[in-house]
């Protein structure tokens, strides 16, 4: 078919009076083609309208497309059962032309960013060989939009804690932060709303204020807005993870950092420079890091169990055995588990990511063999009694012989009486009890109270008119 420019040339030459033979010879065309163009008299080529075999099944195709959930293979099979005589290719072409299950592609946008204006953060699930087995991992990435400087780390999961750890490491790697951080409406950062209406979680908003940037989100479905960070994920999957095996999570993240260094220093044909060279112009425009960056940690409240451990994320960490039953404050950071009793740190461990359900024990947190209190040693209450009242040594020894076990309970009761009651009333009562072999401390305490009531509390005063003498009981 002749294109529009050839048809215009034929019509122009025909207006000048040239015949079809001469026009055909000049344009190297057939005379019949020239005559058909001159007869039509229009420059635009006519559209070829052919009957569509699937047109009579239009309504059935729309219904089957919904019922078969968009599977055109099943739609074609159902149409053939109804007696339709059309190929699968004709069906797919008909659906494309009439936009059945197909939407026309929209042109992608182009975004220009000034140095230090924006950085983009996102995560993507992948698989990696870690510790000798294939693990599902979360790849976290942060990209500077102007220079395309890339920072990548890998985690077993990605919660708000890992997000703050990753962003802190990334901003320290870049040496600063851009004015805003674009995210994809992730619930790790988002409290409510989407796109321009997104409201970040107060915890993450405060984190951004510390480094001088704000979180913003693109509209739902507008993935092109975050293309700077979306594109490198395939690069990480098809380059970094391919053919590599890692011993543990520290190894994979150390190799990921080295890989970022290598790729940031490599020349990009698209950018016509290295990312490092472009970052040299962007670095002075970044928000400066604060003079002090506090360590990111998540706080747990735990009781020390009967075995002397606290549990964090299905792993157990030892605590000095003397703190069994106490409530501890546990701070889980990127590398460590720090355990505090009030303001004092009582234990620290290296944080275990894999495996789960393990015990991390330090030898100094367990009593040494034979370190326990010896039963032959006298109780502390006995030593204090003998130091306070040495004259009670015989009574204390006899009291221990008649007591259950080591006699700590009765010694503690006797020590209380020695501390509380005056010595003038206490000693005669104990001497009388020793003389008569009385070792029931309840009865001894009643004897002391009677002595105190007689000697220390005067119930009547004969010389005072306001207090008449107490009459004696006649029955007695």
Task: Provide an overview of this structure.
Helix 2 packs across helix 3. The protein is α/β, with parallel strands linked by helices. The termini are far apart. 39% of the residues lie in helices and 18% in strands. The model is unreliable at 472-476 (pLDDT under 50). The chain has 16 helices and 17 strands. Strands 1, 2, 3, 4, 7 and 8 form a six-stranded mixed β-sheet that branches. A four-stranded antiparallel β-sheet has the order 11-14-15-16, with no helix packed on it. It has five domains: 4-40; 55-97; 118-285, Ribonuclease H-like superfamily/Ribonuclease H (Nucleotidyltransferase, domain 5); 297-365, no CATH class; 380-456, no CATH class. Strand 5 (190-192) and strand 6 (199-200) form a beta hairpin.
